[in-house]
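**Sequence, structure tokens**
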Amino acid sequence: MKIADISFGEFPLFLAPMEDVSDPPFRALCKEQGCDMMYTEFISVEGLIRDATKSVQKLDIYEYERPIGIQIFGAKIDSMRRAAEIVEEAKPEVLDINYGCPVKKVVCKMAGAGILQDIDRMVKLTKEIVDATNLPVTVKTRLGWDNNSLYIEEVAERLQDVGIKALSIHGRTRKQMYKGEADWSLIGKIKENPRVHIPIIGNGDIDSPEKAVEYKNRYGVDGIMIGRASIGNPWIFKEIKHFVKTGEKLPPPNIKERVRVVKQHLKHSLEWKGPKLGVLEMRRHYTNYFRSYPHIKPYRSKLVTMDNPEDIIGILNQIEERYSQAETYVV
């Protein structure tokens, strides 16, 4: 599979752009575990052109992350064009447009999935961005606004015609948000469409190696994008790749490996965000890393209240010691 001139091999895996999750500390872990391409958290174009600190910081990318895509969202054509120029200066491999975020504060401005209510505007806006940058432009979107507007086949053709190089599709409508089961049947129909020749990347509900292979074979997608299933579980990329190659499942990461990765995540967070924010923003991750372990709550309560990194490391060491000694634990 290729996006423009970027080669990925036969069946690449992508990290979905997730607000407050897919930052450089987390991306480093996913890259280590075999993710082929990652995307930044989605970035407000209005924040970029106003030079807002939070938006500009999301442009931070590192050589070991490449190839990487920077994702932007917005609704105003002039702002999107200016933001595309700013993104190009950050030198990612890909500029991705978010037409899929279902959050109300984004949608009400006709950004993210909001633009699914006006396909003509989506196509016009996309062409403006393609024309404004030398970077390959890709798009991430949903099946439609609701079940009465499932226009994704038309969208795929029209966005391809204005120059995008790949399309990632989340198998839900905006109305569904993240509820119910993702429907990949329309994604499969796009792959069967002889007019569509750009890579189609499927997204939604892939949470195991078995499901990744099943959906690959059933729907013929060129790659798979993984979002929520990677939170607290960056090993999923390695597990899927191993299963695709061998047909065998890797054993789940043991407590020693989990603690190692959490420590690495904390280290990267401190380096990128500083001692105060680095500690605070790690707190949302501990539950995900250790959710399957019995009687973990007292340790987790300490992890989310401590401010000193050395004290946090001490609790992580205690977790490793306790569960390493346990004869059985749920993973």
Q: What stands out?
A: The chain has a mean pLDDT of 94. The longest helix spans residues 255-273. The two ends are 34 Å apart (CA to CA). The chain has two domains: 2-246, 255-325.
